[in-house]
Amino acid sequence: MNEQRQCGSCGMKSMERAILDVNRNFQGHTLTIPAVDGWHCPSCGEVEFASREEAERFFDAAQANQKEATRSQAEALSAPSEAAWD
Ligand SMILES: [Zn+2]
Question: What's the gap in Å between 22 CA and the centre of ligand 1?
Fold first, then answer.
């Protein structure tokens, strides 16, 4: 079976059901969510999740990554000020 769907984002009838790693940009950080089950558009990268659970997993992963990025930014900005005077 090689069913294809129309992409709601770019309109190409090229979306295919697959399990693929998805790259997304979140506030300047590139995040990869591995093995996303859904309809993937090879033209624009749009994803329609196969299920509500899959969508939730995706956004949980995005949120966890965002927290990690925020923490490392905070650490970078809060380096001991003494070091700057050496
Ligand atoms: Zn598309």
Answer: 14
Q: What is the CATH number of the domain that holds 18?
A: 3.10.20.860
Predicted TM-score of the model (pTM): 0.71
Q: Does residue 28 lie in a domain region?
A: yes
What is the C-alpha separation between 72 and 76, in angstroms, rounded? 6
* Span from the CA of 83 to the centroid of ligand 1 (angstroms): 49
The domain tally of the chain equals 1
Per-residue pLDDT of the chain (86 residues; tens, 9 = 90+): 567 899 999 999 999 999 999 988 877 878 889 999 999 999 999 999 999 999 999 999 888 888 888 898 899 998 776 655 55
CA distance 71 to 56: 22
